[in-house]
Design goal:
It contains twelve helices and eleven strands. Helix 3 packs across helix 6 and helix 6 crosses helix 8. The radius of gyration is 34 Å and the shape is elongated. It starts with a strand and ends with a helix.
Length: 423
């Protein structure tokens, strides 16, 4: 067998294969005899058709069938011989074979590109914002806890700002008639909040159970008019913020001040996690931007197919013509990082032992003793344990990379974060 490999680009290879007739003659003879023994035409018994007629009638079919069956075997042998690992199904071109002649074909496929990592020892520079929890965050959290523990009072005297209205929302056509199939039952709104403030709130002020209120709500293209049948009007009676409520909210809180400290720590832990994710993103960007490589097209396409499936499962509508524009760069970057990460893990000799893995699962159980059985069952599945292994491997990698990074932490109050979210 003769092979010749051509580099089309950094990840595409073109393989030319020629298998000499002497190599395949015996196999072809078996194929021919098998076909001949099963061939049957009028005037001859099965398997007794003269060779001249067999070759004239089905010789080309035998040749084609033999070539199709043989190319997979010799393609596999060729890539093993050349120590190549295709990452997609090869495209076969120029398949040629005839009895007595060599078998030849061309296979085009993709491989993972060779990666030359950029110099990164003490050269990664990262600037990442770290938000610091403040009193306003604690107050917001306490307000949410109050609402969760609030009592509900039914209002008969008429709706006021701040009251909750439970009602059936029916969309009306331009002629004022109900639009068929557009009724939303038992929807909750709060007057003075979200879409129902200002003029929209005024339509409900003073209304009572059984009333019908018409209100127009802005949508993407135009206002939508609803007729709201009011089922009930409710007021939240918030509990007093005191030591007793604090103990109800969190059993580890000795008093209200203790609860505030717990809440502050929880919020800050979440903010720190966001900061860590931002640092990791900056490190990823460093490697993706500094490494000269192309993402294999087949891997990018598979990534995009997974994104499409995810969007369909979430019932999110997308336009095909805009899809690649929105997700193409993300796919390209993520595939590059996937390949770079494997290379970095190998270079830094990063691994997670079985002992470390089991200790992590034991830690989860120690932290959640009431859910011991569920945790054990969850990590009893290989795919879940593999996911944990990957997460721990990833964590170790970034810890190592951060040792080679100069990280500038820019602290800001969460007040700045709220301003950005409102813009």
């Amino acid at each position: 067998m003769k092979t010749e490999i051509t580099e089309v680009n950094s990840y595409t290879r073109k393989l030319n294969v020629i298998v000499e007739w002497d190599t395949i003659a015996d196999e072809y003879d078996k194929e021919y005899k098998k076909a001949k023994s099963n061939y049957n035409i009028p005037g001859f018994r099965k398997g007794k058709v003269p060779e001249q007629i067999v070759k004239k009638n089905i010789g080309s079919a035998i040749d084609a069938n033999f070539a199709e069956n043989s190319l997979n075997e010799y393609y596999r042998k060729a890539i093993e011989e050349l120590k190549l690992v295709p990452i997609n199904q090869a495209k076969i071109n120029d398949l040629n074979f005839k009895e007595g002649l060599d078998l030849s074909f061309t296979a085009e496929f993709e491989v993972e590109p060779e990666i030359k990592l950029p110099s990164y020892q003490n050269k990664i520079k990262v600037s990442a914002v770290k938000y610091v929890a403040g009193d306003e965050d604690i107050d917001q959290a306490l307000s949410q806890y109050q609402e969760q523990h609030a009592n509900v009072k039914i209002i008969d005297s008429g709706a006021e700002s701040g009251h909750f209205i439970r009602g059936d929302f029916q969309i009306l056509n331009d002629d004022g008639q109900p639009r068929q199939g557009s009724k939303l039952d038992n929807q909750y709104i709060r007057l003075g909040f979200g879409l129902f403030k200002g003029d929209k709130e005024k339509a409900f002020i003073g209304s009572k159970q059984g009333d019908k209120v018409k209100v127009s709500i802005p949508s993407k293209d135009h206002d939508v008019t609803y007729e709201v049948s009011i089922n009930s009007i409710e007021e939240q009676i918030l509990p007093e913020l005191n030591d007793e409520l604090a103990k109800t909210i969190n059993e580890n809180a000795k008093d209200l001040n203790g609860l505030k400290e717990i809440i502050k720590d929880q919020i800050q832990a979440s903010l720190d996690k966001d900061h860590e994710a931002l640092v990791q993103k900056e490190i990823i960007n460093y490697f993706v931007q500094k490494t000269k490589m192309e993402a294999p097209q087949s891997m990018v396409e598979r990534y995009l197919e997974h994104v499409k499936e995810d969007l369909k499962q979430k019932k999110q509508v997308y336009k095909e013509e805009e899809f690649k524009e929105n997700y193409g760069k993300i796919a390209d970057s993520n595939i590059k990082w996937y390949l770079l990460k494997s290379c970095l893990i190998e270079k830094e000799k990063i691994d997670v032992s079985n002992v470390e893995l089991e200790n992590k699962i034991k830690w989860f159980i120690d932290e959640n003793k009431d859910n011991k059985k569920q945790i054990e069952d969850f990590y009893g599945h290989n795919e879940n344990k593999q996911r944990l292994f990957d997460d721990m491997l990833n964590e170790k990698l970034f810890e190592k990379l951060k040792e080679n990074a100069k990280i500038k932490v820019v602290e800001q109050s969460t007040k700045e974060l709220r301003k950005q979210q409102q813009q």
